[in-house]
Each structure stands twice: as structure tokens, then as C-alpha cells.
Amino acid sequence: RNIIEVAVRPTGELWTSNTHEEGMAETADKLRYLRPELVVMEANGTFELPVAGALASEGLPFALVHPRTVRDFARAIGRMSRTEKGQAGLLAYFAELVRPEIRTLPTDVVQQLKDLRKRRQDITQIVILERSRLNGSTPVVQKDVQAHLQFLEKSLIVLDDQVNRTIRYSTIWR
Questions:
Q1: CA 114, 61, 84, 71 torsion: positive or negative?
Q2: What is the pLDDT of residues 56-109, one digit of tens each?
Q3: What's the Cα-to-Cα distance from 86 to each of 24, 47, 172, rounded to whole Å?
């Protein structure tokens, strides 16, 4: 599942975004506007690292919690629903009652995440431009554009990995 599920307490507001850069930026923008006291995510090994990077680079307070902790909380309150909106709502309720520790990143790590996200956005824009050049180009130009696109897409994978490693090896995992 490539979905970010968000539930806001106490308003009950719900929304979903995709885990692509645009979806993470949209989620971070909405959350920045709401000025939450805390954003809680399960550290389940899927997409929490790039989302944490997006939140950290926007200065949003967040905590990563172990899924077992959330399951135990759900059992304790008699609510084991793992439905999409139910899980986001459960995490919001967990955050409200348990108040897990906010994980802050050092300033240099936040700056590195900002730089990596900016670079990713720049390369994504170049990819869009290059894809638009494919239609109507001569075969020689198409071949060159395809080679450039392959290089750019590999660069995006490397950047994503750098964001993940930056978060994974930061103080929030200790």
C-alpha cells in the first residue's frame, strides 16, 4: 500500500495521500497549516522513513512508535480494527492519550534532508521535461532521452535511499 493515512484529533478530520514526493509534500503542507502538537507514525518498515524526512524538513514534531505498542494499546481499549481510517484514527487516539516522545533531529540532519528533498524535486522536474521530449522526436533523440531518463530514475532511487539512511541512522532510532 502506497498510501499515507492521516487522522486529526480532536477534530476527526481524515485524509489520504500517496507516498510519492507530491503526496508527502501535500501531507506535510496540510499538517504544517494545522500546527499539530505531535504526528505519530508506526515504524513498520514501509514508508515511514521518507515521510519522517518530509515532516522533519518542514519542522513538524513527530514520533515513530513500534507497531506492537499500538496493538497493545488497541487491545487495552478494546479496539483491534486495522481498517485504513480506523488505523489512522487509532494512532491519533494513541498519540492523544499516550503522548509518545517527540523525536527531534539535529539541525545538520534536517538541512541534509531539506537538500535531498530539493534535489529530488529538481530531478523530478527534469524527468517530466525529458518525458515530454519523447513524443515527436527523432529516433536518435529518443534514444538519448531514454538513456537520460534511465540515469535520472536511478538518481531518484539513490536519493530516496539517502533519505532513508539519513533517517535510519539518526538519533530518532536510538
A1: positive
A2: 888 899 888 998 999 899 889 888 655 544 788 899 999 999 999 887 888 898
A3: 20, 19, 26
Residues with Cβ within 8 Å of residue 37, at least 6 apart in sequence: 61
Residue 173 has pLDDT above 70, yes or no: no
Would you say the pTM of this structure is higher than 0.85? no
Reference 97, options 106, 89, 105; nearest CA is 89
- Angle formed at CA 146 by CA 140 and CA 152, multiple of 5 degrees: 140
Cell matching residue 48: 515511514
Task: Give the integer Cα–Cα distance in Å for 73 and 97.
Answer: 10
| Strand 3-7 relative to strand 14-18, pairing | antiparallel
**Residue 100 CA to chain centroid, in angstroms?**
19
